[in-house]
Amino acid sequence: MVYIRIKKVKNIDYAYIVESKWNKEKRTSQQLTKQYLGPLAQININKIPEEYRNESTIIKFLDSHNLNFEKFMELNESLQDTLFEKLKNYELDELFNIYNDYTKSVYSLLDFYEKLLIPVLHKIGDQWAKGEIDVATEHVCSNATITLIDLINQKNINKKISKSSLSTTDRPIILCTPEGELHSIGCKIIESLLLEKGYEVYNITSSLPTNSIESYLDNINPSIVVISVTLKENINSTIRFIQEIRQSFNIPIIIGGNAIQFALKSQIELLEQYDKVYLDLEKLDDMLTYIKTLMNI
Ligand code: B12
């Protein structure tokens, strides 16, 4: 039987999934830790591995902490609808309040982006593609999104961890898009998540000619370059971009974005030959661990 166990360390509650097993020889039950879930204050259904979500003990725990999946989905759907309306009406104060309320208790900034904002942006794209909303409304929504993320960043920048505790190299992370790519919100969101964690970030989107990015890299001397590519038409320009960076610099490169799911196997192989390729932000922790390893911290 698995259940969630809480351990208090320095007054903070941390949650673990543990399995209870009967030890015949010792005639006692033993607890095996199956998975560390993180601080209790940040737990929600998405932090529970899928294979454990239907266990009655887990459901009971989530219910008792008001984290039940159905309630969570209902809450998200209704918040997504509200967020969509507020984006259309450019109600920045209201948008910021939604973010504030959502992240006040259990949900993280990543949850806000993954579960609310990004699904709404996808909905906007689908409605635009079907002709249900016009181009001007789509533009208003993406501009309101960018301003909202700026407001969130302003709040989080105050919490910035001192640089020295993060980086021994003191070299920033560069975020960019390949030539021809005007979709910059992916980078904006990654910027926001990295700023929240205290990293120094230079976001140089949108779409610059490759040679101008190169001279910039030369000046800034970054530790890592992160590239976000949305349109599948831009995968080849991404590959060319990376090849050109590689000719002059030996910097690790992380590539991700919507286009990756449409990339041909041969394109992925070419990209992976250079560095790490991610599709979405679910792997953010993995990406951050990778960044930390690269930065030697
Ligand atoms: C806003 C928007 C625009 C805005 C962009 C404004 C801006 N400053 O960014 C404008 C109006 C400029 C625009 C233009 C166009 N757009 Co547009 N746009 C969108 C929309 C609605 C939202 C994009 C967005 O920001 N999404 C939020 C991001 C965060 O989500 P995401 O891209 O899915 O990324 C996810 C992951 O991939 C990951 N991720 C992203 N980057 C990275 C990087 C790393 C390293 C990692 C780890 C993860 C990661 O994070 C996200 C979480 O899952 C999408 C709809 C959609 N489905 O996304 C259409 C969409 C992308 N656009 C589309 C199209 C067709 C266009 C145009 C060609 C339209 C036209 N005819 O002019 C142009 C192309 C412009 C160009 N040359 O780039 C299509 C693309 C279809 C396709 N082939 O895939 C979409 C999907 C709409 C649709 N349903 O048809 N667009």
Give me the secondary-structure topology.
Elements: E1 2-9, E2 12-23, E3 28-39, H1 56-64, H2 69-88, H3 92-104, H4 109-129, H5 135-157, H6 163-166, E4 173-176, H7 185-196, E5 201-203, H8 210-220, E6 224-228, H9 235-248, E7 253-256, H10 265-274, E8 276-277, H11 284-295
Parallel strand pairs: 4-5, 4-6, 6-7, 7-8
Antiparallel strand pairs: 1-2, 2-3
Cobalamin binds next to helix 4, helix 5, helix 7, strand 6 and strand 7.
Structure description:
- The chain is α/β, with parallel strands linked by helices and about 300 residues long.
- It has three domains: about 1-65, no CATH class; about 70-155, Methyltransferase, Methionine Synthase (B12-binding Domains), Chain A, domain 1, CATH 1.10.1240; about 165-295, Cobalamin-binding domain (Rossmann fold), CATH 3.40.50.
- About 50% of the residues lie in helices and about 15% in strands.
- The protein is built from eleven helices and eight strands.
- It has helices spanning about 55-65, 70-90, 90-105, 110-130, 135-155, 165, 185-195, 210-220, 235-250, 265-275, 285-295; strands spanning about 1-10, 10-25, 30-40, 175, 200-205, 225-230, 255, 275.
- The longest helix is centred in the middle third of the chain and has 23 residues, at about 135-155.
- The chain starts with a strand and ends with a helix.
- The model is unreliable at about 160-170 (pLDDT under 50).
- The structure holds cobalamin.
